[in-house]
Amino acid sequence: MGYALQQDLIDRCGDAEMAAYAGDGNGGLDAVKIARALADADALIDRHLAARYLLPLTVPDLGLTRIACDLARYTLRGDELKSDNIIAVNYQAALKQLLALAQGVTQLQAAGVALAEAPASGVAFTKGKPTFLKPPSVPFAGSPFGGEW
Fold first, then answer.
1. Does 128 reside within a domain?
2. Residue 70 pLDDT grade (very low, low, confident, very high; cuts 50, 70, 90)
3. Among residues 34, 72, 124, 135, which is most buried (max CB within 10 A)?
4. How many domains does the chain contain in total?
């Protein structure tokens, strides 16, 4: 499932911009070029979301549609943009938002979004008296205390 459709990108960018950077040369749009940019955006989003969420998402968060459009728009125009261009600024903001989602700083708000389970490995805590073992007797060269701990 994609996070944005070609029409979402057109609605956010406008017909003129889409024709200029994703035109097919005959007055139409290059659907393959647009689909590739959207697929690249989806893949980048999934790589970030996989750290915390079960994929695929059944109901996409509307914020992800905007992020996907910002990523795809940059992909279509990125080579010629200066860092202070609004498209480049939105792209960097989208990457920061994905990182915040991956780290759990922010969360998706769509209904039916499930968090991924924590891995089974890690530290386990139990109640009770801690047990400390005496270290084995190991000769210590040069010790003034008889060569042991």
1. no
2. very high
3. 72
4. 1
Q: Is 11 domain-assigned?
A: yes
What residue type is assigned to position 81 of the chain? L
Average pLDDT of the chain is 83
**Interval 57-67: pLDDT, tens:** 877 788 999 99
Query: Is position 94 within any domain?
Result: yes
Residue 109 lies in a domain: no
Range of the domain at 63: 6-103
Mean pLDDT across 26-37: 95
Q: How far apart are alpha carbons 35 and 15 in whole angstroms?
A: 16
Which residue matches tokens 């920061």?
A: 96
Burial label for 9, CB within 10 Å (0-12, 13-18, 19+), is buried
Q: Is 143 helix (H, G, I), strand (E, B) or coil?
A: coil
